[in-house]
Amino acid sequence: MSADRCVALLGTGIMGAAMGRNLLRAGFDVRAWNRTRSKVEPLVAAGAVAADTPAEAAAGAGVLITMLSDGSAVERAVTGPRGALAALGDGGLWIETSTVGIGDTERFAQAARKRDVTFVDAPVLGSRQPAEEGRLIVFASGPDDARERCARLFDAVAERVEWVGEAGAGTRLKLVVNNWLHALLGSLAETVAFARALDVDPLRFLEAIDEGPIGPPYAQVKGQAMLARDYPTSFALRLAAKDVRLVLDAAGRRGLEMPIAEAVVAKYGDAVQLGHGDDDMASVYEAARGDTTARRA
After folding, report:
1. Mean pLDDT across 163-175
2. Is residue 179 situated within a structural domain?
3. Which range of residues forms the domain containing residue 252?
4. What is the tally of structural domains in the chain?
5. One domain for residues 161 and 183
6. H or E stretch including 8?
7. With bands split at pLDDT 50, 70 and 90, how would you rate the model's confidence at 196?
């Protein structure tokens, strides 16, 4: 069996666990590690092997996939003590699917080069359901000769792969997409609150924009959650706040002011303070509705 059929997966939260299940279904051997060991157990039941450390997961594997919460978590798991990179060995392939910053991506690419490991920067677009269904969108970037090695792996987890250039280009595109996505969500939350303030049924608003050029399907999904004030987690609000901070960091590197992004991350922070950090990002509505003392029942 090719070494590339053995995958070390670091991070088995909502996204990572779904990716792991799809890799197992596609016939890959998966060695899974997560800081919270209990989150690995469902993957073990599906056929994965649990590892006690990132290095143990990577030992003997040909491919390392990271799907962790932020750049610091990736750095600790991959390049820190008992990290995966040293155990992966020369000639390995590291596919970094987490959403991290520009500086993080540059450091990871450099660390991989020092170990003679091929680095592919490949953040993904999607949340729980697309991840479960293997319908993620991958913004892949890295050396041309990595494409063939990545193809079957991406086929297992994604419905579309966009190769966008050298490592780092994927992260930059993901940050741009995220800026639009979070601006839309913040505006949607404010619009639902505005409708209620004007005694307009917000459902009528959602119906008015449905299936038209100004009403993306995303607005319907998140808008219905806001109307119900029910936020089962597809993507946690605290991670959404992290993603907007990455946007602001990238903009600051280029001297660009982003007042809309700043307003969105502030509103996300308000909702986190209300106790919604682990709820779905649609829970930003709880801050937009103006009752800063309300907590979810």
Report:
1. 98
2. yes
3. 171-288
4. 2
5. no
6. strand 6-10
7. very high
Please check whether residues 135 and 210 belong to one and the same domain.
Answer: no
Q: What is the pLDDT of residues 73-123, one digit of tens each?
A: 999 999 988 899 999 988 999 999 999 999 999 999 999 999 999 999 999
Q: Write down which residue in 126, 150, 166 finishes a domain.
A: 166
- Select from 68, 81, 1 the least CA-distant residue to 32: 68
Based on the number of CB atoms within 10 Å of its own CB, is 108 exposed (0-12), middle (13-18) or buried (19 or more)? Answer: buried
Edge-first strand order for the sheet with 158-163 is: 124-125, 136-140, 158-163
What pLDDT is stored for residue 291 in this prediction? 65
Q: Are residues 26 and 153 in the same domain?
A: yes
Q: Are residues 180 and 275 in the same domain?
A: yes
**If you write DSSP's letter for every residue of 74-117 in order, what string do you get?**
HHHHHHSTT-HHHHH-TT-EEEE-S---HHHHHHHHHHHHHTT-
For residue 240, the surrounding DSSP H or E stretch is: helix 237-253
Q: How many CA atoms lie within 13 A of 264 on its CB side?
A: 29
Specify the pTM.
0.93
Look-up: residue for tokens 């619009």?
Answer: 191
Same domain, 281 and 190: yes
Cβ neighbors of 216 (< 8 A, separation 6 or more) are 184
How many beta carbons lie within 10 A of that of residue 194, not counting itself? Answer: 15
- Cα angle value 19/61/104 (rounded, 5°): 65
Q: What percent of the chain has pLDDT over 70?
A: 97
Q: How confident is the model at residue 296 (pLDDT cuts 50, 70, 90)?
A: very low
Number of residues assigned to the chain? 297
List all residues 6 or more positions away from 101 whose beta carbon is below 8 Å from its beta carbon. 71, 171, 246, 249, 250
Within-domain flag for 295: no
Dihedral sign of CA atoms 13, 16, 19, 23 in order: negative
